[in-house]
Design goal:
CATH architecture of the largest domain: 3-Layer(aba) Sandwich
Shape: globular
CATH class of the largest domain: Alpha Beta
Order of helices and strands: EHHHHHHEHEEEEHEHEEH
CATH topology of the largest domain: Rossmann fold
Bound molecules: ligand BJW
Helix content: 25-40%
Low-confidence stretches: none
Strand content: 15-25%
Number of strands: 9
Number of helices: 10
Mean pLDDT: 96
Oligomer: single chain
Strand order of the largest sheet: 3-2-1-7-8-9
CATH superfamily of the largest domain: TPP-binding domain
């Protein structure tokens, strides 16, 4: 059975109307990532960070999966169970809403909240507030369940194991500027996988891939899948 690991980033959701981070009109041109995507920023101004993620949660709820998400769901459905694993850096749920089942959110999920005191997790309300108490321990230490800079991404051991077992590694819509995800292509290649980049333009790490196909995800991902 051919094993395919697919890494996705903000570019796959761009045509669903969700902003990327580093493009000319990206989120990091309007917000300082140190303010909204670090534990230190959250400690300084938790209200600002909650509002940033509340707005992102509203946008994600209004967005719909695009042909790229749908094509990946068709790929998973067409192949034997266990063949396709999506590792997404995205915090939206568009892969799941497209029908993908095997999805790992390495940078967390807008749809979940977490207690910074006891570690419990639960579904996030539409609007999270700083004063919200943890349903498990009662402490008001609620935070978005998002992996910020300096924090360990989720499921790393399972991801590395999947990369070691992969026959094909495909990266879709990511700039290759954030680690450890940016090193997955090298991890997979070292383990013998073929590597393919699907992105609007050659990314910062395009030369690490065996092959590249460039253009909007909604066009090139269905072409690659079919
Ligand atoms: C399209 C398209 C269309 C557009 N069709 N394509 C120095 C060296 C190395 C590492 C470090 C370093 N200093 C610090 C670090 C570590 C740090 C890091 O990488 N920093 C870099 C800035 C250098 N990383 C971390 O801190 C991570 N944790 C960590 O490393 O833990 C320690 C560890 C050690 C050993 C092993 C494992 C771990 C945590 C990173 C957390 C990232 N968090 C964010 C924000 C939270 C989530 C959220 O709010 O949504 O995650 S940052 C942001 O960047 C977000 C994204 O998931 C992530 C990646 O961005 P992405 O998805 O690539 O988006 P863009 O905008 O960058 O690119 C979009 C691409 O799409 C572009 O190429 C476009 O061309 C393309 N595109 N439209 C197809 N229609």
């Amino acid at each position: 059975m051919t094993k395919i690991v697919i890494l996705t980033g903000a570019g796959i959701s761009a045509e669903s109307g969700l902003g990327t981070f580093r493009d000319v009109d990206g989120l990091w041109t309007r917000y300082d990532l140190n303010d909204v995507a670090t534990p230190e920023g959250f400690a300084r101004d938790p209200g600002l960070v909650m509002e940033f993620y509340n707005a992102r949660r509203r946008n994600a709820a209004e967005a719909a999966p695009n042909p790229a998400h749908l094509a990946l769901a068709r790929l998973e459905a067409a192949l034997p169970p266990g063949s396709v694993r999506i590792v997404t850096q995205n915090v939206d749920d568009l892969h799941e809403r497209a029908g993908s089942r095997a999805v790992w959110h390495m940078h967390g999920e807008l749809a979940r909240a977490r207690c910074a005191s006891c570690g419990a997790g639960w579904p996030a309300p539409a609007e999270m507030r700083v004063a919200d108490a943890c349903p498990s321990c009662g402490v008001a230490a609620t935070r978005p369940d998002i992996v910020w800079f300096g924090e360990m991404p989720y499921r790393m051991e399972e991801i590395w194991e999947a990369l070691r077992a992969a026959d094909l590694f495909v990266s879709i819509g990511t700039s290759g500027s954030v680690y450890p995800a940016a090193a997955f292509v090298q991890d997979a290649a070292r383990a013998g996988a073929e590597t393919l980049e699907l992105n609007l333009e050659p990314s910062e790490i395009a030369r690490d891939f065996d092959r590249g196909l460039h253009g909007p995800a909604s066009e090139i991902v269905p072409v690659w899948v079919e």
